């Protein structure tokens, strides 16, 4: 009897193992006659509006995602996605309930790089889209198709990626906005192939009429800009549609508000009393992310030096910048906030002030909600009898949107070896040393969250901005005193205010010299609060390019060296 039950159990177990849902994904020779490398992403959603690939997110409504690395995949050859493939938010195909789904596949193409450091790696080169697997030109994808999954039965679905993302059109120059692109000698040497830096430059009113004028320059750091945003010479139409709704701000008609702010900026920019200067947005997308964090990195290469000593001088040469540290300023929010402060810290003589709004973690002992140096696990607070998940995002009421584990698992499904093109992976790519395989050393196990203290120690010495300021204040202090301005909402969605609190404590207490800095918080303000307590966040976040002008002008007046040009650009 026992033997019969055991036999029945084994048969049922084997039947269940073989009764799996699988997908075979391929591309035809009409899309590529050569074999391809990359990451096959399979997405399942409950609706096809928008397409499934547009529904992958940190939201609870996210589509289901699975990812498989492919090497030398030939036309017509299939990649199998089965229950063994890691997924997000469900880890395996076997965990999907029965029901109707829309399925879509994407091939995020990788390129082979033979780097100067001797490593050969495969990565998704940016193709002008700002490192976005959904829209990257040349990426293959399938049309969404409706399927029915019956859990516990053997099913196989064929998905053919017979579509391709088209190339993107380069932005065109206007009267005020000019575009520049240079090949970087430093980055080309590091990556072993031509690498470029670009920028969008907003020219001051009267630029052509005043050829004798030379201008201060402001670098507005941030994510990849397709064009100079937030500036328009025409007002929004009076009958512009205002039915759009932004859940985050609980407001209708936000697109019209954005358009009006862009036109208002144009009117201020061209007004008689507005200071004449250059404002620059940099394009430095790379094989890991939509920007480089504007610093030198073992994995990304010398982006900091390339921007500072190749791109910036070329901009100042072409557009008559003053070209001296007293006439250069940086500002930005989020990623751009970190970059603004990092540029001031790593190139202290080259800038005369930074305005860092809602910066990415500027102290790693408050790396969002945990201490990178003391905690053992990034995903869980651990006690002797309990593990509590750490939150990853919240709203202004503190309601949690996603956990750190969930957002990191989404990245893991999107790409191995820090190749997701997303937030935690780019921090890892920028801050980590190169691993033996040529890819960034993991700061923590991407699956379990277990932190590597040796990698954390490397991060501390090279990119922890609070630690670096504290460690090097004797030499850095005299160069950055009076230049640091930091702003953050005290309900920042990503808990970035926690590191700002630690930085504030240091800046308030440090002596010889005093920091003479500014740190301010927005009450109940969420991400992107940038220092204006008189306006709601949905307005102030659109005013970076005018918000700090008065402080910049005061700094110039009080710190410019004797004989400096303070007149040619004040017409």
Automatic annotation (TrEMBL):
<dbReference type="InterPro" id="IPR050583">
    <property type="entry name" value="Mycobacterial_A85_antigen"/>
</dbReference>
<dbReference type="InterPro" id="IPR029058">
    <property type="entry name" value="AB_hydrolase_fold"/>
</dbReference>
<protein>
    <recommendedName>
        <fullName>Esterase</fullName>
    </recommendedName>
</protein>
<keyword id="KW-0732">Signal</keyword>
<feature type="signal peptide">
    <location>
        <begin position="1"/>
        <end position="19"/>
    </location>
</feature>
């Amino acid at each position: 009897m026992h033997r019969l039950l055991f036999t029945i159990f084994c048969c049922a177990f084997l039947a269940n193992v073989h009764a799996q849902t699988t997908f075979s994904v391929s591309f035809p020779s009409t899309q590529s006659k050569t074999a391809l490398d990359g990451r096959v992403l399979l997405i399942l959603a409950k609706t096809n509006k928008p397409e499934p690939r547009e529904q992958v997110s940190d939201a609870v409504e996210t589509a289901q995602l699975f990812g498989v690395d492919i090497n030398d995949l030939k036309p017509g050859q299939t990649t199998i996605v089965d229950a063994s493939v890691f997924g997000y938010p469900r880890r395996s195909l076997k965990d999907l309930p029965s029901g109707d789904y829309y399925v879509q596949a994407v091939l995020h193409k990788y390129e082979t790089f033979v780097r100067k450091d001797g490593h050969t790696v495969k990565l998704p080169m940016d193709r002008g889209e700002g490192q976005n697997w959904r829209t990257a030109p040349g990426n293959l994808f399938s049309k969404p198709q409706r399927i029915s999954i019956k859990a516990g039965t053997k099913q196989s679905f064929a998905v053919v990626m017979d579509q391709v993302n088209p190339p993107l059109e380069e932005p065109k120059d206007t009267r005020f906005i000019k575009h520049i692109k240079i090949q970087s000698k430093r980055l080309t040497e590091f990556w072993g192939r031509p690498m470029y830096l670009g920028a969008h430059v907003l020219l001051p009113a009267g630029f052509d009429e005043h050829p004798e004028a030379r201008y201060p320059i402001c670098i507005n750091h941030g994510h990849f800009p397709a064009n100079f945003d937030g500036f328009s010479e025409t007002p929004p139409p009076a009958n512009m549609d205002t039915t759009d709704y932004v859940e985050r701000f609980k407001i209708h008609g936000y697109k019209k508000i954005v358009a009006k702010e862009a036109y208002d900026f144009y009117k201020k920019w061209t007004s008689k009393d507005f200071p004449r200067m250059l404002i620059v947005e940099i394009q430095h997308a790379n094989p890991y992310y939509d920007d480089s964090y504007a610093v030198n990195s073992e994995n990304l290469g010398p982006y900091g030096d390339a921007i500072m000593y190749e791109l910036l001088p070329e901009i100042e040469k072409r557009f008559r910048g003053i070209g001296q540290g007293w006439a250069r300023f940086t500002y930005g929010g989020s990623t751009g906030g970190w970059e603004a402060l990092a540029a001031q810290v790593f190139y202290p003589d080259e800038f005369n002030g930074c305005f860092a709004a809602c910066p990415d973690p500027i102290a790693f002992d408050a790396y969002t909600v945990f201490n990178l140096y003391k905690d053992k696990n990034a995903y869980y607070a651990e006690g002797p009898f309990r593990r509590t998940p750490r939150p990853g995002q919240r709203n202004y009421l503190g309601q949690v949107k996603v956990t750190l584990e969930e957002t990191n698992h989404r990245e893991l499904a999107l790409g191995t070896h820090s190749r997701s093109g997303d937030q935690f992976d780019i921090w890892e790519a920028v801050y980590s040393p190169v691993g033996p395989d040529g890819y960034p050393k993991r700061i923590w196990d991407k699956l379990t969250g277990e932190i590597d203290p040796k990698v954390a120690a490397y991060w501390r010495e090279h990119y922890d901005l609070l630690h670096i300021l504290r460690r090097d204040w004797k030499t850095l202090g005299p160069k950055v005193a009076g230049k640091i301005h930091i702003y953050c909402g005290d309900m920042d969605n990503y808990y970035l205010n926690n590191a700002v609190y630690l930085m504030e404590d240091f800046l308030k207490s440090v002596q010889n010299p005093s920091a003479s800095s500014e740190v301010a918080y927005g009450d109940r303000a969420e991400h992107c609060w940038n220092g204006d307590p008189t306006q709601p966040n949905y307005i102030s976040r659109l005013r970076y390019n005018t918000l700090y002008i008065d402080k910049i002008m005061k700094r110039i007046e009080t710190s410019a060296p004797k004989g400096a040009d303070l007149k040619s650009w004040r017409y």
